[in-house]
Design brief:
Keywords: Chaperone, Cytoplasm, Stress response. By secondary structure, the protein is of the alpha+beta class. It contains five helices and six strands; from the N terminus they run H-H-H-H-E-E-E-E-E-E-H.
């Protein structure tokens, strides 16, 4: 009867030893949230599930995946290069079209101003281009020249059917090739395109006199005629 109390007294902890209580509940009773340590314990994979492979050798299936990714990168790079080339061609084509439209619009405007330039030229030839009108005319001509309008057609120019419109044609011993000897109306071009051909008179080198050759032949024929006639008379005798 007296030994039981003694055994309980020896197994009991000392009065000054601290009591440690560990709360292993997954749910925090105060916040109602899953505790971080518990979540980590559940998501951690067992040590036995880890797959290892020899050093430098990718796991099975990873090599095929890498090859597939490299092929996809090559295909995407090729597609990107093709799209870039197509875009560059499109941009150059749009720029050419835009420039062509601008030149055509400017050409139409300049073509409408050519009669005014003709009037200015006639007034200058007759000595009527004086005073304020002269200043305005010269300013207009300078502005149009800056815009790219080019005048052509002068005496002594070689005749070119692509830019000259021949209204008269003569022969002259003073020229060695078809030459513009008179200008009736100047021609104009813009951006390398002829807006209006120049109206000119053309002279070509003088050809040999065709009557000279015919005269020589005629003389020979005339000399042969009496001989033929003489022969006929002798035959008649």
């Amino acid at each position: 009867m007296t030994s039981a109390p003694n055994d309980w007294t020896q197994s009991a902890p000392a009065p000054d030893e601290p009591v440690i209580v560990r709360d292993k509940r997954r749910i925090d009773p105060q916040s109602g949230q899953v505790r971080v340590e518990a979540a980590r314990t559940q998501t951690a994979s067992p040590a036995g599930d880890t797959v290892t492979s020899p050093a430098g050798v990718p796991p099975a299936g990873e090599a095929d995946q890498v090859a597939s990714l490299r092929q996809q990168v090559t295909e995407r790079t090729s597609d990107l290069q093709r799209l870039k080339a197509e875009f560059d061609n499109y941009r150059r084509r749009v720029e050419r079209d835009r420039q062509a439209l601008a030149e055509q619009a400017a050409g139409r405007l300049l073509l409408a101003l050519l009669p005014t330039l003709d009037d200015i030229g006639r007034a200058r030839d007759h000595g009527d281009l004086e005073g304020p009108f002269k200043a305005v005319a010269e300013s207009l001509e300078a502005t149009l020249e800056t815009a790219g309008l080019e005048r052509f057609g002068a005496r002594g120019d070689e005749f070119d059917p692509l830019v000259h419109d021949a209204l008269m044609h003569t022969y002259s011993a003073e020229v060695t090739r078809p030459t513009c000897v008179d200008i009736f109306r100047a021609g104009y071009r813009h951006a390398g395109r002829v807006l209006r051909p120049a109206q000119v008179a053309v002279a070509e080198p003088a050809a040999e006199d065709p009557d000279a050759g015919q005269g020589a032949d005629g003389g020979t024929a005339a000399g042969a005629a009496p001989e033929a006639g003489g022969g006929s008379a002798e035959a008649a005798e």
